[in-house]
C-alpha cells in the first residue's frame, strides 16, 4: 500500500525538493542530512529517492544546461604550464651542453 511507482511524484515537487536541498545543504553537517530532512518535510518516501533526484539535477547542470564545461586541455593554466615546461626543458638542455663543455676542459 505504501509503495510508490515511478512518476508518482509531480515534477513540481521534485524540483522544489531539489531546490530545497541545494539551498539548505550548508545548514546541515552533510548533504545526506539535508536530503533526509527535506524528504521528511515534504513526505517523500525515502531519502534515497530524493538523493537520486539531486544527483540527476547535478548531472544535468554539469552537462551544460546552466554552465559551460571547459576541458582540461583548454584551461589557461594548462597552457601556461605547458609553455613553462617547454622553456624549462630548453634551459636544461643548455645547461647539460654547458656542463659537458666545461667538463671536457
Automatic annotation (TrEMBL):
One of the GO BP terms on file: DNA transposition
Record SUPFAM superfamilies: Homeodomain-like
InterPro entries in the cross-refs: Homeodomain-like_sf, Transposase_8, WH-like_DNA-bd_sf
GO molecular function, one term: transposase activity
Pfam families: HTH_Tnp_1
Name of this protein: Transposase
Gene source species: Kineosporia babensis
Native organism taxonomy: Bacteria, Bacillati, Actinomycetota, Actinomycetes, Kineosporiales
